[in-house]
Structures are given as C-alpha cells and as structure tokens.
Specification:
four-stranded mixed beta sheet; M1 Pyruvate Kinase, Domain 3; alpha+beta; five-stranded antiparallel beta sheet; globular; 16 strands
C-alpha cells in the first residue's frame, strides 16, 4: 500500500445502526465480522408476519421512533414524541421490544438477528458504506434548511473521511467494476460502486416528512457538480452518493478506529 501525502484521508466518524432503520450511534472503534460487516451494524432487523423487513423504504412512520443504545450493557431505549421512553435488553427483552414495536406500527412484528453479516441494504456488498465529510457538507448546501448533521442522518453512512475535498471518495470504485483495494488502519476494504439512494433521504430523519423536490434537486446538483476527474460510467443516474464496499473474510476480527489513515495501492 502507498499512503497519500496530499491529502491524507482520515477516519473521523464511525456510525453503526444496531437495529436496521432506527437511529445510529457514533463509536470510536468497530470490529469486522466474518461476513464483512461492522460488529453490531444492522445486527437486528424488524420483520412483519410475511417476513418482510419493516424499514424506511416501506414505512415512513419508523422515522418517528427514537432509539438509543448502550451496547456494552445490551440495552435499547425506545421512545416516540411525548411518550415515556422504555428500555429493553436486546437479548433477554426481545419480546418486550417486539410488543412495543407492534403496538406502535399497529401490526405484528418480530426482530431477527444476524451476528455474521447483519442485514445490509446491498447483500452483494455488505461492507460499511463510506463518504467524506466534505461531500455531506456539499450535499447539505444544496438545500436551504438541511444541516450537515441532518444530511448525515438521511444518508446513514458508516464511515466518514476528513481532511479531503468533496467527492474525494469517487476514487474508490473502478470503471470496469473491478474492486478498488484500499486500507483504513489495519483493515483492507474493496470499493465496489457508488451507492444508489432510496426514498429514505427524501424524508426528514426524525419526522418522516417528505422534503419537496428533494430527489430532483439532489440529482440536478449532483450532475452539475460531478468532479471532472471522476468517471461517470458507473452513474446510470445521479441519485447516488457514498461508496459501497466489501471486506474479505481474512479481515474478520480486525478493528477500524477513529483517526485511522486511509491508504491505497498504486494500481
């Protein structure tokens, strides 16, 4: 691997989402699972009686659930506006969580757990998604009343790089779909493709309220500001942002840490 000297990308934010589609938490390190995901990221998902995942794509009401996690104690606290928060043990209090969620949604749901890969949106590329802080800042600037923190919450990306320009991460996929190998700290990752966004970013991350013309504005600005040095052949449309990754089983057990430097091979 060769280290970049100008710029030298650094891991500045590391976010995981223990229950798919609920709130994320910031951590200072995360272990790589055998399936290539981050430990505890999308460890659980909510499913209905037909075994279909209940998420923001299907159910906008999920945005109004507030969740906080104490992963060391294995506690989740759930709340909705103007109601008393309720805490449950993630392992021993599963039925209580399911009952609370079922009452909220108005239909029966259960929790599923996967300790190997979790429940990623892209099962072919289950590694952590990656973006730069500068890209989030640029995307937020396209909307008069969306902050950087709100854009971060809408895009729900795992890894965030600092000390680089907007769209720097476009270097981490190839024109011919060959994985681009790079390393963050001790962990080798493979950049696969620019992440296709769904309906979730069009909604307020806390209320679920749709932002007028969000997708249209996003695509127009994304195209207008697409970096001249990047390759557009992987963009069948411009509603894409952040990078999907894979991590080989050989990396299982290694740790990503805040402050780790990103390095990349010369090829």
């Amino acid at each position: 691997m060769q280290y970049f000297t100008n710029p030298m990308p650094k891991l500045t934010h590391l976010l995981i989402y223990p229950i798919k589609s609920l709130d994320g938490i910031a951590v200072d390190h995360a272990k790589i699972l055998p399936g290539g995901a981050l430990e505890h990221d999308r460890e659980f998902c909510i499913v209905d009686r037909a075994n279909k995942i209940v998420n923001g794509k299907r159910t906008a009401a999920i945005h109004q659930i507030r969740s906080t996690f104490d992963l060391k104690a294995r506690i989740v606290t759930l709340a909705i506006q103007n109601e008393q928060p309720v805490s449950f043990h993630l392992d021993h209090g599963r039925r209580g969580i399911e009952g609370w969620l079922s009452d909220y949604f108005g239909f029966s749901v259960t929790l599923k757990q996967d300790l190997t890969t979790g429940f990623p949106d892209d099962s072919a590329s289950p590694g952590p998604t990656l973006i730069s802080t500068a890209t989030l800042e640029r995307a937020a600037s396209w909307f008069s009343d969306i902050t950087v923190e709100e854009m971060r919450s809408r895009l729900r990306t795992n890894l965030e790089l600092g000390d680089v320009a907007a769209f720097w991460e476009e270097r981490l996929y190839s024109t011919d779909e060959t994985p681009v190998r790079f390393q963050i700290g001790e962990v080798e990752l493979q950049g696969i493709n620019p992440c296709q966004r769904c309906i979730v970013p069009t909604r307020d991350a806390r209320s679920g309220e749709a932002y007028p013309q969000f997708q249209k504005t996003f695509m127009l600005q994304r195209r207008a500001e697409f970096p001249a040095w990047a390759d557009e052949t992987r963009f069948t449309h411009y509603y894409r942002m952040a990078i999907n990754t894979r991590i080989a089983p050989t990396e299982a057990g290694k740790i990503l840490r805040i402050g780790d430097i990103l390095s990349c091979g010369s090829s």
